[in-house]
Amino acid sequence: MSDHPAYFRVLLLFARNSLVRDMTFRANFIIDTISSLAWMGINLAFYVLIFQYTPMLGAGTGWGKYEFFLFLSTTLLINSLVQTLFMANADEFSELIRTGALDFALLKPIDTQFLVSLQRIDWSSLGNLGFGLVLIVYAYSQLGYAPSPVAISLYLGYVLCGVAILYSLMITLAASSVWLGRNQTLYDFWFYITNFSRYPREIYRGKYGDPLRWFFTFLVPVLVVVNVPARFLVRSLRPQTLEDWFLPAFTLFAAVASLAVSRWIFNRALASYRSASS
Amino acid sequence: MTVIEIDGLAKSYRVYQKKEGIWPSIKGLFHREYRTVEAVRGIDLRVDRGEFVAFLGPNGAGKTTTLKLLSGVITPTSGTARVLGHVPWQRENAYRRRFALVMGQKNQLWWDLPANESFRLHQQIYRIERRQFERTRDELTSMLGVRELLSQPVRELSLGERMKMELIAALLHSPEVLFLDEPTIGLDVVAQYNVQNFLRHYQQTRQITILLTSHYMKDVAALCRRVVVISLGRIIYDGSLSGIIDRFGGHKVISLQMSNGQPPDVMARYGQVLAAEPPRIKLRVERSMVPQVLSAILAHCAVEDVSVEDPPLEQVIAEMFTHPNGPGGHADEGERPA
Amino acid sequence: MSRASRKLSAEVADSPESGESSKSLWGGHLEGGWSWQAFRSRAAIWWTILRISIEERLVYRGDFALGTLMRFLPIVTQIFLWGAVFSAIEATAGSSQVAGYSYRDFIAYYLLTMLSRAFSSMPGLASGIARSIRDGTVKKYLIQPVDMLGFLLLYRVAHKLVYYLVAAGPFALVFYLCRGFFPGWPDPLTLAAFVASLGMAFLLGFFLEATLGMIGFWFLEVSSLLFVYMLFSYFFSGHMFPIDMLPGILGTIVHALPLQYLAYFPSAVFLGKVTGPALAWGLATQLGWVVFFIVASRRTFHLGVRRYSGFGG
What is the CATH number of domain B2-246? Predict the structure, then answer.
């Protein structure tokens, strides 16, 4: 018998149990899904309104209405994956720390970060994934072309990188509740930080914009999360500058590095918890 | 064979001291005062395979902390411990497969799902072979009489049924060492009795090693031959349950039934009057004085019936912890939030 | 609150104030009457409420410091988003106005709506009332000589005061850093109108949300309903964008709703978008809505209580 549990089968059970649970509260599940979709609808309405007044997001950036819709769908896909897989867990994590129920996770012969990060899967957040896919199809129909298979596979790969970066950020925030006490505002922090990821990098320009773009690209790499995959979808946005060529490579590095950093912080948090709790 | 070896194990915490009032709260933003709480102050203990040991002690004595140290959930400040040859706080998977911890105050089963779903998850996490898993599960559920509740959401179970399910979850992987932290807390008498019976039977047939903490002396009396008393983070007694009375119960209780209406105040000279409901009377008498007192009473009073008993165990233990000169010292330190 | 509404509330809500009213306060005890002694005991209670609010806020210093800081991050993205929009408009159309707003107006507008929402947002009010109805704590207001709405208003004022105390620093800093976006101080009359509209925004926000909370007397599960309201309010109060941007019939409808007085109206007043008779009319309408919701919250409370006691609680 191997020393490690069958991680994939455990994950499937997490998914299955969460679905069973969600289905016992069907009304809630439906309300959750509809609320998320309504919120997306309102956001879409806002952007439609903006494009009533402007042809493009930033002069010469190439982010016209439908190009931006592709960008927006990418935001939706990535956020919905992160929310489905990790958000309920990250939120629960601070609760586990507060109540001491983290003890049980520490007892199990399984990687604690894996257990804590994935045990509750929030299926209702998957609705936005559908919304995003529909929006992609609609945007392409308006643009009048389809992406190449190469673009699609690169896109999917970089969507996963984006998920990895956001996950790392989220678990880092959640782990910080060991030191900061309660972390009810996890969702708030989450929103405020990812807020920077939801627009094209090109809008951060000028005296303040350049350092900001630099900061959120290289130090807290939320700006590459959506930007890098989304550019693969837009045919008119071929790489031009050195930076355009360099960013995809950097994103791969950022995904790996942020996973490593978040794991380190997670373990530090566990160590703190283990020496502080009674 | 020695299963648990503990040497000089100690654990202290830093606790943030929150102050009342606005100004202290503001100051707390910049500077925090901490207080060091020594939960466990140097424990030495050997436990052999197949022993069923009870930890007794008042709230905050360090019982739960010791169990958590042995489970590897927390790391000690100093000292060493080995359970089944492993250092618990290294949290090796090999060790984590071989023991289990049950906490009566916390539950680990998925609240909204049938217990069986949580069990299946355990099966995967502990990599229990399917047939063996089903056999163990069915055996445990029928022993505890909760077989038909397997597919009912945990939140719909009674406290007792839930506790039984928690126990089953902990035993699915057939641990060799089991730590039980107040497993019967809050249960009614029947459920308590059932859990005790189960634990005794299970431990005897499997010959596993169990460490138990409990506030219910009945649990301890029913289950454990060996009792370890912890007070203020130290072991102050290690031996049999009856030995506690010999060692710490410094008096006996003499119950008398008088044939005439002897006024109780006369009896006060023989010992402390605990209860007086004429014609019955209870006296507390120093253990060494019992023969003398008894013969004096029988010589001077008309007694219909007499019995000499040890004081109730709870009382002895309570006195042990509260007696100012006794080893306990005090018991006013409340249970820290877990 | 359902999971989705919790998830999204961070985006829609606009205040780092904790949404949960403290249990100790819900369990609080208030004596009525207006004798001197009653007044003194009442003053003592106000003081206690204020003190507990402050302490509550200060216990969790880490969250608190980060929360106050993060609050201003979305404004940064707005500045760049609208910078990009205006750069494109100027490059193509040569005009530099969107719905009558210049780029600087837009940023000033967003900052001002943040200020307005600091007055009008009532985190946890409606859901708190609904919860107290559901778990029966509302009974206390029926037994004790306490006016629930009065008590909640008091509690809210205390909470807001503490919040202003805490947020004044960051607000002043951000407004100072962004002073270039503002057209300068308005004239005293406009300023007075702005202050009045902020005060009324607070009252309107309170009584509107209180009225919504009373729905809990009729429906057990109101969190989803409240969430829908939150979405609507976010979009139509002018929090997301100046509502003059809405075209045609949509714009007309939005101007007829009370929601605009929670965020859009005070900001527009400050920026001099509403002047003369329109200003007077706007203030009067806002007052009208305040009165309407004061009456509505009282009526729904009484009707609700009657229904509640009819069912035997």
Answer: 3.40.50.300
